[in-house]
Amino acid sequence: MLTGVTTAAPLIWFAAAAQRLNLSTVGLLQYLAPSCTLLLGTLVYGEPFTRIDAFAFAAIWTALALYSGDALGLAWRTRAAEKP
Asked: How far apart are CA 45 and CA 27, in angstroms?
């Protein structure tokens, strides 16, 4: 009976937190879990990490960095334009 609560509680907490955050922030945070799993697999369990894997990982995080940088720049420009 506690298995249902153990499974449902984190999902309920995530849903409550996601409502308080910007959608772009939630999307960015969704990349952390697979990245942590990748690091765990390669560093702790010795899973192979090929050159192709490294390229894909770098491409994804480069795109996220560009997206985040653009979003921050837009926020700064909007905030600067609102100041009298």
From this structure: 27
Instruction: List CB contacts of 26: < 8 A, sequence separation 6 or more.
Output: 18
pLDDT digits (tens, 9 = 90+) for 10-65: 999 999 999 999 888 888 888 888 899 999 999 999 999 999 999 999 998 998 89
Question: With contact defined as beta carbons under 8 Å apart, do 54 and 7 qualify?
Answer: no
- HEC readout, 7-55: HHHHHHHHHHHHHHCCHHHHHHHCCHHHHHHHHHHHHHCCCCCCHHHHH
83: which 2 tokens? 């100041």
